Amino acid sequence: MTEQAASQLSGQRTLLIGTRRSQLATTQSGHVQAGITAQGWEAQLHIVHTPGDASQASQIPVAQIGVGVFTETLRNALAAKECDVAVHSFKDLPTAPDKRFRIVVPKRVDPREVLVSVDNKELGDLPEGAKVGTSAPRRVSQLRAVRPDLDILPLRGNIDSRMGRVGNDLDAVILARAGLERVGQLDRAAESLDPHVLMPAPAQGALAVEVRADDEEAWQAVLPLEHLPSHVMAAAERAVLATLEAGCSAPVAAHSEWSGSDYSELTVFAGVFGMDGSKQLVDSVKVTFDAGLGREKPSLEQRDHYLKRAFEAGSSLGSALLDAGASALVAEAR
């Protein structure tokens, strides 16, 4: 479809962007809305209530509610045409492809974890036995490896409620840097943690913008938001998770880094961790791409080729971890 044709279509409808009600979700969706309207389309946010919102208030662990609790309702609303676009944190989506939808990934923000603490103490400076809040098995297992003395306690809720516990019943909390950055509260972070010390979740910091597979207008509206190097990183990291057959609540982490500025070589790191901190399996793989990946507008065929190569690289890394005994560590956490 030509830009002129897309421009003509853009005046025919207002695209509804499905989002949860939380500050982080509406802020993320607002960025997507701005990107869509910058292309000449009309778009507005549409609030979709998810069961996960109520569970946060009652502090029910994600493992008890079910993986994908924050995304399934949004996807159902999109499939039912209640909205035209759905915005997710990519790390929360199931790894199995869903043929009902097409996805683009805007430019990823910093995927690292951050520590928010009393007196802005860094992780290594927290007092012995400090109370640290996090519920993610991936974070718990890695924290126990580097600071086995810490008292790690469950933590749910939105960003403000989590940070609000610091200085009350907790000495520190671990959060995703991406969330703080998007809501303008990055100054609350005492430290951004080295991903080789505390490796983030696969695809952390990346958004997934979904439209229905048969909705060509919505696809043309979101396609310019695609940042292919970010999508390739996220695809490789998520392929590790898919190969391990582990959900987003498993003690599995992944991180990837481009070498240089031409997006020609990607190194993907992944780890699986024992919940008591005593065991860890960490490995990496490198994958090379031709210069076309860095082009501003590669063809859809080229895009699919690069994403396939990324998936294959991540899958091979996941297989290497399985060969090293990762299944036992994943099963341990269930």
CATH secondary-structure class of the largest domain: Alpha Beta
CATH fold title of the largest domain:
D-Maltodextrin-Binding Protein, domain 2
* Cα Rg: 20 Å
Widest beta sheet: strand line-up:
2-1-3-10-4
Describe this structure in words.
- The longest helix is centred in the C-terminal third of the chain and has 24 residues, at 300-323.
- The chain has helices spanning 3-10, 23-37, 51-58, 62-65, 72-79, 137-146, 159-164, 177-182, 216-222, 228-244, 300-323, 326-332, and strands spanning 14-19, 42-47, 85-89, 101-104, 113-117, 131-133, 151-153, 172-176, 191-192, 207-212, 252-259, 265-273, 280-288.
- By secondary structure, the chain is an alpha/beta fold.
- The chain contains twelve helices and 13 strands.
- Strand 1 (14-19), helix 2 (23-37) and strand 2 form a beta-alpha-beta unit.
- It has a five-stranded mixed sheet with strand order 2-1-3-10-4, sandwiched between helices. The chain has a five-stranded mixed sheet with strand order 7-6-8-5-9.
